[in-house]
């Protein structure tokens, strides 16, 4: 069952051949794990072969030199000093480094602020810090249900800071996104960073989806901490992330995760550039992805036309593709009135699924669409609010197993949405295929196929 196709004939994008996808697979979920062009994959494998030929020579001699060259490439891209940039495996590790290093006042008034749309692993990291430093630090979630205007988001943050202080708390830092994961929308990170400075709150920017997708000139933004996954939108192999810490805050990050050879006891003098040397080697890992940044940037420049071209192409396709899918389903793209939420390479489209608090009669289990001209025409499924997560999981499983794709399905603000990623290897035809596929899948939900609990 399903409209999975026998070939990728619908896509006319020549750049698709630069990637290693299964010919039957539509990668509409680049945001989760990224993808690496074949030339960059070859660089990765050549590095792995080199280290196997003589591990000691490579790890002790070649690796530090190559690491510094790739750090320099990222520093140039972000327009920051070389000694403010280090690599870690992923964005979650970066946040762990920051939050587990910070020292909290013993009066118990310190507070971590974050928005309710925080990435799940980051939210758990905040929970862990609060739990493990019980009595020293607390947390405060700022509720956020989209669509919301950027100015309102900043105003809610300011209100939360004042509320914290009115309650006798000390708002030490705020964790916020560049582009949020769910929903996949552009966050007003520049305005938030400025507001943090005004209010005396440290800015911890989760840019997991930033580098390679959104212009990130950190010299202009000047956050207290910033991190981003290079293995997502920059096309670096997994796992590679960059952690930026300005010199003024480097003394706060005394240990890596895990703590390793670079740690210096606090009562001993700290060597110059300790921040960089501390993160250079944190135990035996495959550091090859860290050494592929230069090749990834070269591919973007030589094949696609450079950073601006890559970003413009992806954002434009996300906007156009999202609107097309919404038209096919008879719904709309999640955006605010000023259109700032969609200034990124992801788009969120509401599914023609009605969410209700309770279902009193069988006739409420489906309703007739008011516009039979749309692709989602016919019965619109109605599901109870407490069933959204399970139905969404069923839909994602079916998409992966039967339609040879993966599209994130999630509930937000009493609606069900899908998040679609645009990329240089996709074109409008891929989004139109997604629209047809999602329309068919919604009809299967209307038939309550998810209750069979089978993917046969």
UniProtKB/TrEMBL annotation:
<keyword id="KW-0663">Pyridoxal phosphate</keyword>
<dbReference type="InterPro" id="IPR015424">
    <property type="entry name" value="PyrdxlP-dep_Trfase"/>
</dbReference>
<dbReference type="InterPro" id="IPR000192">
    <property type="entry name" value="Aminotrans_V_dom"/>
</dbReference>
<protein>
    <recommendedName>
        <fullName>Aminotransferase class V domain-containing protein</fullName>
    </recommendedName>
</protein>
<feature type="domain" description="Aminotransferase class V">
    <location>
        <begin position="170"/>
        <end position="335"/>
    </location>
</feature>
<dbReference type="InterPro" id="IPR015421">
    <property type="entry name" value="PyrdxlP-dep_Trfase_major"/>
</dbReference>
<dbReference type="Pfam" id="PF00266">
    <property type="entry name" value="Aminotran_5"/>
</dbReference>
């Amino acid at each position: 069952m399903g409209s999975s196709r026998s070939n990728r004939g619908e896509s006319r994008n020549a750049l698709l051949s630069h990637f290693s996808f299964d010919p039957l697979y539509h990668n509409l979920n680049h945001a989760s794990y990224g993808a690496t062009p074949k030339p960059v994959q070859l660089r990765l494998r050549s590095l792995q072969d080199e280290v196997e030929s003589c591990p000691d020579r490579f790890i002790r001699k070649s690796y530090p030199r190559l690491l510094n060259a790739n750090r320099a490439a990222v520093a140039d891209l972000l327009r920051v000093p070389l000694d403010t940039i280090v690599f870690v495996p992923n964005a979650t590790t970066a946040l762990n480094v920051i939050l587990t290093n910070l020292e909290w006042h013993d009066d118990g008034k310190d507070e971590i602020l974050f928005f309710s749309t925080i990435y799940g692993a980051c939210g758990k990291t905040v929970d862990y810090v609060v739990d493990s430093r019980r009595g020293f630090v607390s947390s405060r979630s700022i509720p956020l249900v989209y669509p919301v205007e950027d100015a309102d988001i900043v105003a809610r943050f300011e209100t939360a800071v004042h509320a914290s202080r009115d309650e006798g708390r000390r708002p030490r830092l705020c964790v916020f996104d560049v582009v949020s994961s769910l929903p996949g929308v552009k966050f007003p990170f520049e305005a938030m960073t400025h507001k943090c400075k005004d209010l005396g709150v440290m800015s911890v920017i989760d840019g997991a989806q930033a580098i390679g997708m959104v212009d990130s000139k950190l010299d202009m933004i000047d956050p207290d901490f910033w991190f981003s996954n290079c293995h997502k939108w920059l096309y670096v192999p997994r796992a590679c992330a960059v952690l930026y810490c300005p010199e003024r805050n480097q003394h706060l990050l005394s240990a890596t995760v895990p703590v390793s050879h670079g740690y210096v006891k606090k009562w001993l003098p700290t060597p110059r550039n300790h921040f960089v040397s501390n993160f250079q080697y944190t135990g035996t890992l495959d550091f090859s992805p860290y050494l592929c940044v230069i090749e990834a940037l070269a591919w973007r420049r030589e094949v696609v036309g450079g950073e601006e071209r890559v970003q413009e192409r992806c954002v434009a396709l996300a906007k156009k593709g999202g609107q097309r899918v919404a038209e096919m389903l008879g719904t709309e793209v999640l955006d605010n009135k000023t259109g700032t939420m969609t200034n990124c390479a992801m788009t969120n489209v509401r599914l023609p699924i009605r969410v209700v608090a309770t279902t009193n009669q069988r006739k409420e289990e489906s309703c007739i669409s008011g516009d039979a001209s749309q692709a989602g025409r016919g019965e619109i499924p109605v599901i109870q609010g407490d069933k959204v997560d399970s139905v969404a999981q069923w839909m994602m499983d079916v998409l992966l197993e039967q339609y040879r794709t993966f599209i994130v399905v999630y509930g937000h603000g009493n609606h069900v949405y899908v998040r679609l990623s645009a990329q240089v290897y996709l074109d409008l035809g891929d989004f139109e295929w997604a629209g047809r596929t999602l329309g068919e899948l919604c009809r299967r939900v209307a038939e309550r196929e998810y209750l069979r609990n089978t993917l046969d």
